[in-house]
UniProtKB/TrEMBL annotation, chain B:
Motif window: PRPP-binding: 112-124
Function in brief: Regulates the transcription of the pyrimidine nucleotide (pyr) operon in response to exogenous pyrimidines. Also displays a weak uracil phosphoribosyltransferase activity which is not physiologically significant.
Enzyme Commission no: 2.4.2.9
NCBIfam families associated with the record: PRK05205.1-3, PRK05205.1-5
Keyword Transcription regulation on entry: yes
Name of protein: Bifunctional protein PyrR
HAMAP family assigned: PyrR
Assigned keywords, A-Z: Glycosyltransferase, Transcription, Transcription regulation, Transferase
Amino acid sequence: MKRHLISAADLTRDDALLVLDTAEEMARVADRPIKKLPTLRGRTVVNLFFEDSTRTRISFEAAAKRLSADVINFSAKGSSVSKGESLKDTALTLEAMGADAVVVRHHASGAPQRLATSGWINASVVNAGDGTHEHPTQALLDAFTMRRHLSGVGRDLAGRRVTIVGDILHSRVARSNVLLLNTLGAEVTLVAPPTLLPIGVEQWPCQVGYDLDAVLAKSDAVMMLRVQRERMNAAFFPTEREYSRRYGLDGGRMAVLPEHAIVMHPGPMNRGMEITAEVADSPRCTAVEQVANGVSTRMAVLYLLLGGSEPALATARAEEPRPEEPRADDARPDDVPTEAARTEESK
Amino acid sequence: MVDDRSTTAQAAPAPPARPVLEAPDIARVLTRIAHEIVERAKGADDVVLLGIPTRGVFLARRLADKLAEITGRTTQVGSLDITMYRDDLRLHPPRALARTEIPGDGVDGRLVVLVDDVLFSGRTIRAALDALGDIGRPRAVQLAVLVDRGHRELPIRADYVGKNLPTSLRETVRVLLTEEDGRDSVLLGHSRREPQDRTAAAADQ
């Protein structure tokens, strides 16, 4: 990972822990009377949303504002995109406006990657969900939530068993979570009807099962995914009732979980479909907490990408950490080849 | 930030760093500062000690213990991370954050004593004052440092100074504390940097 966050796979274990530890400190800002830090003053963050989203956009907006960045919201509806403007022209417009970071959600998988590597813009690109590909900040906030409940601040998730249930096929959340949780040492099991598993899932670093009841008793966290009706243009399962009976989480199934286990949901929830109201409203369900953690996590990501002369999350970790040389000026990140981030030294 | 300083010290070639304060000196100096705080704060009832990470936090805790010995009451002690308020953030990659721990009753209306190991350019303290302003409104803010090495770049001075150490910009001051480094000592070394490189030198502070 250089100066973009496109995929959860871009993050090394050290990167991921740095984001989570930073998020932990960011979370404390929310408890203060003045919920604002001056860190990103004068930087511009553009929320570029080609697809509807409340939670993620508001979360990114709150995160950027708490760091004192200027936020420009751009949604495809009511913009020139609805008049047929291409991604490239939109990007060039943003570049001309001097965006330092672009948070992009797009219905096409790979759009953020294209934006980051095309040379259209110099800004850092943060993937806020692209098609059925990835949603890395969601995975980070899920890992943050799990860590708080299951292993404690400062640790990774080694040995924790996480079960992800539901529409894996259409879920960018599942893909990012599998990659990140694997990096953090957790054992992930996917449970879904065979029709809702993507091709090639056997190559993912996780187990795959079809029987929810078989894995519940040894799960530390169960993540229920929304059945994405808007993407269900084919018959993936016979009836909603059958899906709900086989793969939905109700009070009875929750009782089978170990005492410390948590129930997670990235939202929005379909109550009565993949999760019953009883479970959704129980204290073990972290859905609301996940939203709060989302702001802290995204603050951490924005700080680490934009807070200095160059991002703290770097692939160049293999390089020898060199004693700091005086930097001539605050060169733009793109002028500077990736250096071993000094964060390692300064922690 | 503190570790930058240690990197500098490690990078320094011969002559080796010379100790200017040893463990008994540091203990004596902290005892004196504690007495001065009690004297000036007329009993130190409303004092909140806030250490600046990393080593300022350990010094603040030691001062709190000394104050408790003198006054017989526990003193509020915490830490104040200033990373997000630094003025040189854009000169370096983002730094990992340290812990900010404000004691239960907050700082409103209290006498806050900021505690740091070395006072140099004064930029850390400026950032600390900004950070403090976002947390509450103290009755007054004072500053206690173990070593004042001079070369201020801002109109800031310490209220309690362990040792005034006149230095040149070529020199490095490195504070070692048992909690972090295994032993107590203040070392004066030589930087291989050119003295005119004020930006990097200030970053050490």
